[in-house]
Amino acid sequence: MKNIGVVCYPTFGGSGIVASELGSALSYKYKVHFIAYKKPVRLNTLNKNIFYHKVYVPTYPLFEYPPYELALTTTIVEVVKKYKLDLIHVHYAIPHAYAAVNAQQILLESDIKIPIITTLHGTDITLVGKNPYVASAINYAINHSSLVTAVSESLKADTLTYFNINQDIQVIPNFIEFKSDKIPIRNNQEKIITHISNFRPVKRVLDVIHVFYNIQKKINSRLIMIGDGPDFQIAQELVYSKGLSELVDFVGKTNKIDGILTKTDLFLLPSETESFGLVALEAMSFGVPVITTCSGGIVDLVINQKSGYTCQVGDIKDMSKKAINLIQDLNLYKNMSQEAYNSAKKYDIKNILPLYDCCYKKFIG
Ligand code: GMT
Per-residue pLDDT tens for 270-322? Predict the structure, then answer.
C-alpha cells in the first residue's frame, strides 16, 4: 500500500472536514497519515490504515510568535522519512502549502522527491492569502506545488486574479456522504431554521438573527445557531436585545449536526463570500433548502429559485421575504426541498472521490 500524508487544520472548519473525510474514504487503498497540531475533529483513528502525527511547536520566552511553520515543515520531513510517504496532500494554503514545499526542498537533500498536492479552500485565497503580508510566500507555494486543486470555479478564478499562477488549477468540488436515501419527513409545528459556521465576520451571523427576527414575526419558528467564533458574543447580545432569547438556541461547536439537520426546515448562510459552502451542501443532503448570498462559488451549489435563494449580501429584507414565502407555500417548499436533495446528489462522495484518486495516481501510479 502507498502512503499518503495529509496536512490540514484539525478544527470544525470546512477544509479540515474535507481533508478528514477524504483521507478516511481513501484509507481502503492507501495508508493515510494525518499531520496536524491536534487530532482532526471528525477523524476516526481506530482504522488501521489511518495514522495521526502531532505537530509539536516549541515555545521559548524570546518567541512572541511560536514558529508553527518551522515545526510543521520539520514534522512533514520526519514523517515522510520515517513512514516512507509517497505523496503529501495539503488542505488550505496557509501555511500548509508553504511548509510542504519547504519540506520538499529539505527532502531533496536526502534524494527524496515527494510530490505535493495543494487544495485551495477559500479564505486561504480570498481573505488571508491575498493579504500583501503573506501573498508572495503563498504565490511561491502554489507555483511550487506539483498539482493544485480548488473547490470551485469561482475560487480558481479568484486565485488567478490575485496571484501570478504559472500552472493549471483543477477544480474538484467538495462532497458529501449521504446519510439517508430519502428526505426526512418533517412535520414541525414550530419551524426550525438553522445556521452553522465558525462565527467569523465573513459569515455575517448578525444577518442570520435579523432575518430570523422577521421570520418569527410571521411564523411559529425557532433558530438553531451551531458553532463558535469571534462574533459569538455579539450574536448573543443581538438575540437578547431583540427579545429572541427563548426562540434561539446557541449550540456551540458540535459534531452531532445530522440529528439537527434531519429536523431543520430552512438553512441560512448569508456569508460575505463563500467559495463553496460545505455546510450548505450538508443541509441540502437532508433536503433542506438554503438561503444564501450570490457571492463566490456557492451560487453553483445553491441554484437560485430551485434549491434555495441566492440574495445580495446584506439584503435582510429580501432574505426574510423569501424565507417566509418559502415556508408558507407548501408546494414551493416541497419542490425546493426535493431540488436541494437532488442537487446535493451530484456531490455524492462516490462521484468526487475518483477525481482526487486520479490526481494521486498521476504521481504514484
Ligand atoms: O469559512 C469557513 O467555513 C472555513 C473555511 C475552511 O477552510 O475551513 O471554509 C472554506 O473552505 C470550505 C471547505 O472547502 C468551504 O466550504 C467554505 O466555503 C470556505 N469558506 C469560505 O470561502 C468563506
Answer: 999 999 999 999 999 999 999 999 999 999 999 999 999 999 999 999 999 99
Please count the structural domains in the chain.
2
Q: Specify whether 314 is located in the same domain as 203.
A: yes
E strand or H helix that includes residue 196: strand 191-196
The pTM of this model reads 0.95
170 domain residue, yes or no: yes
17 lines ligand 1 (CB under 6 A): no
Domain of residue 168: give its range.
Answer: 2-175+349-364
Per-residue cell: 268? 441560512
154 lines ligand 1 (CB under 6 A): no
pLDDT of 91-113, one tens digit each?
999 999 999 999 999 999 999 99
Taking the CA of residue 122 as reference, the ligand 1 atom at the shortest distance is: 22
Return the pLDDT at 365: 80
Write the DSSP assignment of 27-72 as a string of letters. GGTEEEEEEESS--TT--TTSTTEEEEEPP----TT-SS--HHHHH
161 and 51 share one domain: yes
The atom of ligand 1 lying closest to the CA of 200 is 1
Q: What pLDDT, on the 0 to 100 scale, is given for residue 169? A: 98
Q: Is 198 a pocket residue for ligand 1 (Cβ < 6 Å)?
A: yes
Can you tell me which atom of ligand 1 is nearest the CA of 197?
Answer: 3
- Residue with CA nearest ligand 1 atom 9: 14
My answer on whether 202 and 283 are in the same domain is yes
The minimum-distance atom of ligand 1 relative to the CA of 126 is 22
Question: Do residues 323 and 248 share a domain?
Answer: yes
Per-residue pLDDT tens over the stretch 31-67? 999 999 999 998 988 899 999 999 999 999 999 999 9
Please tell me the distance from the alpha carbon of residue 80 to that of residue 6, in angstroms, as a whole number: 11
Distance between Cα 197 and ligand 1 center (Å):
9
Tell me the CA–centroid distance for residue 278 and ligand 1, in Å: 7
Output the CA 151–ligand 1 centroid distance in Å.
Answer: 9
In a domain, 180, yes or no: no
If you take atom 12 of ligand 1, which residue's CA is the nearest one? 14
* Any domain includes 183: no
Q: At what angle do helices 14-25 and 349-364 cross, to 10 degrees?
A: 70
| Cis peptide upstream of residue 95 (ω within 30 degrees of 0) | yes
